[in-house]
Specification:
The complex is a heterodimer of chains A (about 325) and B (about 200). In chain A, about 30% of the residues lie in helices and about 25% in strands. By secondary structure, chain A is α/β, with parallel strands linked by helices. In chain A, the strands form 3 sheets. Chain A has a 6-stranded mixed β-sheet, sandwiched between helices. In chain A, β1 and β2 (about 35) form a beta hairpin. Chain A is globular. With about 200 residues, chain B is mostly helical. Chain B has one domain: Serine Threonine Protein Phosphatase 5, Tetratricopeptide repeat (Alpha Horseshoe). Chain B has 8 helices and 2 strands; from the N terminus they run βααααβαααα. A two-stranded antiparallel sheet of chain B has the order 1-2. The longest helix of chain B has 25 residues, at about 5-30. Classes of the chains: A alpha/beta (about 325), B mainly alpha (about 200).
Chain lengths: ~325, ~200
Amino acid sequence: MKMLINVAETVVADALRGMAAAHPELAVDVENRVIVRRDAPVAGKVALISGGGSGHEPLHGGFVGPGMLSAACPGEVFTSPVPDQMLRAAAAVNSGEGVLFIVKNYTGDVLNFDMAAELAEDEGIQVAKVLVNDDVAVTDSLYTAGRRGTGATLFVEKIAGAAADEGQPLERVESIGRQVNENSRSFGVALTACTTPAKGSPTFDLPPGELELGIGIHGEPGRERRAMMTSGEIADFAVNAILEDMPPRNPVLVLVNGMGATPLLELYGFNAEVQRVLTERGVAVARTLVGNYVTSLDMAGASVTLCQVDEELLRLWDAPVRTPGLRWGM
Amino acid sequence: MLDADFFRRWMTVTTASVNREAERLTALDSPIGDADHGSNLQRGFRAVAATLEKEAPQTPGAVLTLAGRQLISTVGGASGPLYGTLLRRTGKALGDGAEVSESEFAEALRAGVDAVMTLGGAAPGDKTMIDALVPAVDALADGFGAARTAAEQGALATTPLQARKGRASYLGERSIGHQDPGATSSALLVAALAEANGE
């Protein structure tokens, strides 16, 4: 499988060096794997830290900057970062107002961020945590690792980031983050698997003419495999899966997210279908975002995330943000 | 009696096993995971080997605590905290003595495995590393060879199980029919005990 890399072992380090060169407003510590906004710590403000395996760019490093994350901790490809990274990040960004960890619900992420939180608290840094578990494809039960954190991570990071930016205290920023997560649901489909640099071949075998329904973002197979569907049929399936789980009472933010290898041309067409289904189901749309935000290397596919918002959440979503991956208002 | 040399040997043999089996572990981690188990453990145990060489811990307890701490700082994912806690907790239970008896070690390893179950929340039958580690610890009273056999059988026995923990659990019934990569690497770790003991 051809990849634009030197060798698999240096993929993450190489990417970090490239990010550093492209974004002088970020302080990128390549050796210790932490990306920090250069103006950190920001006096009087709560700091947001997230992280996870590499391979989901722009998540999370691409969302470091005013209005969103204070720091991001990239692990090896599809591998949770280690506590040392989050501890270093927390020390770098804490202004004294405390730090909010935004943690996607994967066993590894949870374990490493929990360990880091303990270590940070030992150093006198106040840490709160928001768990993101928006994926409806997994049954949240005693018999699974729980729902995965996927597209809603973007909504949590942006909205909580805005709250922190306007000086809200840690408990309030945490509560807002939690509210966003609780009001978000996602569903994803894959048309291809992805190829990790280390493995060098697709993570699972998806024959032509078939698609995976209910995927995550780590190249694992989905819940179900079916014969290939049209964009309209996929939109029906995905949006209905979300609405069944969370019938919205409020207007929604819509994220139509590319998994990495699907052209914008297709994503926009898919968005048209998503909007059609929402209209048919009487769901009001507040804002829409289409693009590659929470990716899975070179997987072809897309996910839909809906987040129902009240006036305050919408105001925070609209608030200015300046990061490599998301920018408006400044 | 088992001294620091023995435990260093255990880690060296494990490192060699993981290097040898890395591709296979990754292959097991593909249908029911994200294809990174082999390379993660390889990276982790290489770092363990380097740090043991550099720091030269003098007691069994120190060897394992250092190894565990290094795994936590290097591996990432769920495996880092879980394997790291296994070795750290076992190391702590071994205390400061220059050598420990086989039964002291068995007790300490049980404490380590208990800590992993508490941290990860898995029980036997969930299709995880626990399905190799618990049988191994139960068999340790009969020697390292018995523990190795029990761990290997435990890993094989994960194949028909449906995963209830970790990434494989997202697949539901589709996780059935695949051997668990975590149980497989745990069996390698236990087998390394026997090999380090010359068995």
